[in-house]
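Sanity check record (used in CI):
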Amino acid sequence: MSKKIKNPSLFMSISLLLVIAFFLVYGIMVAQYQVQFMLILSGVVASIFAVFHGETWNNIIEIMSQKIKSGLLLFLVLLSVGLVIGTWMMSGTIPYLMSFGINIISPQYLYLMSFIAAAIVSLCMGSSFSSVGTIGIAVMGVASAMDINLAITAGAIVSGAYFGDKLSPLSDTVIMASLVSEVDVYQHIRHLLYTTIPSMIISITIFFLAGLKINPKNTELGNVNEIDSNLHQLFDMNLILLIPPLIILIGSLMKKHVLIVLFLSAVSAMVISLTMQHYPLKMVIEAGIEGFNPNMLSNVIPNFEKSSINNTVIEILNAGGITSMGSTILTLFCAFFFAAAIEASKVLKVVIARVLSLIKTATSTILVSLASGLAIILSTGNGTVTFFLMKDLFSKQYTKQGLHQLNLSRSMEDSGAIPEAAFPWTSAAVYMATTLGVSTVEYGPWAIFNLLGIVFSALLAILGPYINWFGIKKIKVDNSSES
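Expected output for Na+/H+ antiporter NhaC:
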């Protein structure tokens, strides 16, 4: 006879959530223990809790397998981005973009330009991940060459990438949020502007002011010139090197699948590596799989001596490859185990259900949904799961309070998809930190755009009764059936 599964009490649910919050916040952000270990520890604690309440280990593993299945596209995108970075580096595409940036960007405007460049690429591609994995890598190279704060630069890149992503009708999260909420995708984007525009204005203002504090005299201009000279010595630089990013841009505008576009871009970079940079085929494949290594330059440059190259150039060039995403994918598996354990424990549903019973106003409905969305994304690390759970929990409540579903779709984005990259244990943050080479704890406080969306959503809800519900779309409610 199978053991009966029972919901935990409110007290036990809150207690477990507090314990897990301590593990994640203190363990990862304060003590700086390995993310993977803290996720596994939290998952084990939640699993034991779930089993104690009648759940089975087999079902927890089944839930985990379903989450891995839903995240298959993410795994493939990560591997593809690793392939792109390795081949773009060998072909000279990233060095060319770096050289271009070094020569046209003033150190004082680098943070601002990082935000703008990432935003433009994300808007065109509809993918913050692809934006960070392409233009983001090049901008980080420029910042490293200029000896400029890498944490602020990474924060600006992540902020810009997510801003562009939220304005793109090609974005998977934008499309998913609108589909789940059953609203038009373009209306959803327009409704997002009430929170994304002020978040963007504050972000670019802060990045502009932070940049003004940079003294150009302290940015090692001699070092920058040496780096630029090294890049031109090591690679055949010309406009043909822009073909790989152009393929991504054109493919995105034509709404082709992101995996196809990334693969074609990598293939074009491999062809350039063979024909223009004159690498042997075996080494080109090696760069795609294991990443580009500066030692490979000795095969195409006569009498190449690594010691003659600026150390910063050596560090920048050593990047990419499918295998470079191994740590990221491992962390995702740990995150999926943690998310499966949390789902099996049912603690989030118990707490949110209790809170829902106390909601009486439109303002409190929005505030509770924002808090719940943040809690769910931090517990599951999966935007799709977050969106569907928020739909199930809050759709009727929004309608009951006279709130259009556009408000719910925006809450999904502002509390779920956007803040995700600022917290170390989420899949987005793991990817950003791995790709940009800066830990989430370092760049997180500078991911300003990612932190402000939920703030402005909350402000609109709080001020709503006093500003005629500006920025919040209302509907008429028929209460005749409730009499």
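Residues 28 and 35 are 6 Å apart (CA to CA). If this sentence no longer matches the regenerated tokens, the check is flagged for review.
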